[in-house]
Amino acid sequence: MSPDFRFKLLAALALAAVLGVAGCHGNQQSATATNTGQSAASTTQDQGSDPAAANLAPATYTTTSAPASASSDQSEPAPSSSTTSSDSDETDESANVEPPTVTAPQPPPPLPEYDQPPCPGDGYIWTPGYWSYAATGYYWVPGAWVRAPYEGALWTPGYWGYIGGHYAYYPGHWGTHIGYYGGINYGFGYIGIGYEGGYWNSGHFTYNRAYTNVNVNVVHNVYNYRVTNKVVNETRVSYNGGAGGVHTRPAPAELAARREPVAPRMTTQVQHEQAARANHAQFVAVNHGRPANTALDHPLEADRNVRPAPRPPLASREAHPVNEHKPQQGHPEHRE
């Protein structure tokens, strides 16, 4: 066999091997797309840019460390700001939109593990469950699907923060970008910063099946994207600052969202919290941190005529004292 013929034979074998490998990857990709109901483009190893990055305000932020918290589907910790610090026990209030509505002498329990109900339809946003506080202690407010009050509305969850020797709850709000929620990993796309459960696209909300329970026979606007910095954390910490809390400070994108018009939680959401407080089984004193009802089995509808409005500078607690037991009531301008 001549050297020239041997070289041509080896080259042909190498080319065939390359084509065979490419064919296997293509078949695997097609099979995955068929099994999940996704397009082949959404299941490629190279996911490309994150569509839900649009949920953050246009400001740069770094990924220096991850907040130490987790809950259901909470294996993805969020990137945190370069200002993240573990030296201070106090919560950074610089990005809070609303003043605290309730305080407690001790931190809330860990977030319970629970399953997310399927999305009821287009235009519903997941609002994660949280611990609230009354005179008899902490009680669990179930997670719920809520119809967005206006096109482009995103929900920034509330959070507990350690400040001035006690724990204060800063309520959530609606806005066009996700603000600061203490770095708490609530799961289901709320990984500590931003929201990975979906994004608005041409007037419709498109849901990320990597984090959201979606029946594709009911909801057709879907895609699949999972954050790649996967670190398993089972602590389920539910508060920022203080001993054992998350020590994540606001990222520039979250500070930018603080300056945008927002709408407070709706009357339907306030009533949902009040219903949880009226249910004795939801209190930690009864369920020992394992509430009977972790997520609402039916969606909450939006109040009428809810529109975002510019927020005044955050008032001091001296000017607006916090009721230590009774949560803030609904906003009159949102009552029907």
In short:
The protein has four helices and 14 strands. The protein has 336 residues and is α+β, with helices and mostly antiparallel strands. It folds into two domains: 1-42, no CATH class; 57-334, no CATH class.
How is this fold's topology laid out?
Elements: H1 3-36, E1 102-104, E2 124-127, E3 130-134, E4 137-141, E5 144-147, E6 154-156, E7 159-163, E8 166-170, E9 173-175, E10 198-201, E11 204-208, E12 222-223, E13 239-240, H2 252-258, E14 262-264, H3 267-277, H4 284-287
Parallel strand pairs: 7-13, 11-12
Antiparallel strand pairs: 1-8, 2-5, 3-4, 6-9, 7-8, 9-14, 10-11
Number of domains: 2
- The proportion of residues forming helix, as a percent range, comes to 10-25%
Largest sheet features = 4 strands, mixed
Low-confidence stretches: 7-45, 61-72, 75-87, 315-321, 323-336
Distance between the termini: 90 Å
Instruction: Spell the H/E element sequence.
Output: HEEEEEEEEEEEEEHEHH
Overall shape: globular
The fraction of residues in strands falls at 15-25%
- Strands across the major sheet, in which order? 1-8-7-13
Average pLDDT metric:
77
What does the radius of gyration come to?
Answer: 23 Å
Number of strands: 14
Which structural category do the helix and sheet elements fall into?
alpha+beta
Tally of contiguous helical segments = 4
